[in-house]
Write a structure and sequence with these properties.
Helix content: 10-25%
Strand content: 25-35%
CATH topology: SH3 type barrels
Number of domains: 1
CATH class: Mainly Beta
CATH superfamily: SspB-like
Length: 163
C-alpha cells in the first residue's frame, strides 16, 4: 500500500471491532449457559472503560478507577447475565459485593491466560490515550499466573484510519 491509499467509505475497523466484541459475548454466553462455571483452568481478565456509556459500577469503584478497570472472572463471581449488548456480573472487592453492568462496546481487552488467548480493542477517538491505573484487585484467586504473557495470541486490530 502507498501513502496515496484513499480513505475507505466502508468502516472496516468498526465492523471488525464489533465482530471481535461478539466473540467476548459468545464466550460469556457459553459460561452463563453452563451454569456460570468456568471449565478447566479458564479464567478471564476483562478491561473496560469505566466512563463509557451504559457502564454501571459502584461509586467507590468509579472513584478509584475513573478511566479504565480490569476485572477477573475466575472463582468468585455470581449472577452472570449476558445480553446482546453487554453483561452484568456480581464480584467482590475487598470482601464487599458489587454488581457491575458492562456493555461490550466499553471493553478494551479480553484475556484468557489459561490458553494464552487475548483480544485488544481500539478505544474510540475521544478516549485513545488511557491513563495508567491499578488492577481492580477483586477477590478472585489468581493461581500460578504471573502475568508475564508474551502476547503471542493477542489479536490487535488497527487499520490506521486517517483523520
Amino acid at each position: 500500500m502507498t501513502d496515496d491509499t484513499p480513505d475507505s467509505l466502508i468502516p472496516y475497523d468498526e465492523i471488525v471491532q464489533e465482530a471481535l466484541r461478539a466473540v467476548v459475548g459468545r464466550v460469556l454466553g457459553e459460561i452463563q449457559r453452563g451454569g456460570s462455571e468456568l471449565p478447566g483452568t479458564h479464567h478471564f481478565y476483562i478491561t473496560f472503560k469505566t466512563g463509557a456509556a451504559g457502564v454501571s459500577i459502584p461509586a467507590h469503584l468509579k472513584e478509584r478507577f475513573p478511566d479504565e478497570m480490569t476485572i477477573v472472572l475466575q472463582n468468585k463471581f455470581w449472577d452472570l447475565e449476558v445480553r446482546e449488548d453487554g453483561f452484568t456480573v456480581g464480584l467482590s472487592f475487598n470482601q464487599i459485593p458489587a454488581k457491575l453492568e458492562i456493555p461490550f462496546a466499553a471493553i478494551t481487552a479480553f484475556v484468557d491466560p489459561a490458553v494464552d488467548f487475548g483480544l485488544q480493542f481500539q478505544a474510540s477517538a475521544g478516549e485513545m490515550e488511557a491513563e495508567p491505573h491499578e488492577d481492580a484487585e477483586n477477590d478472585a484467586e489468581t493461581g500460578d499466573d504471573s502475568g508475564d504473557d508474551d502476547g503471542s495470541n493477542v489479536v490487535t486490530v488497527d487499520f490506521g484510519r486517517k483523520k
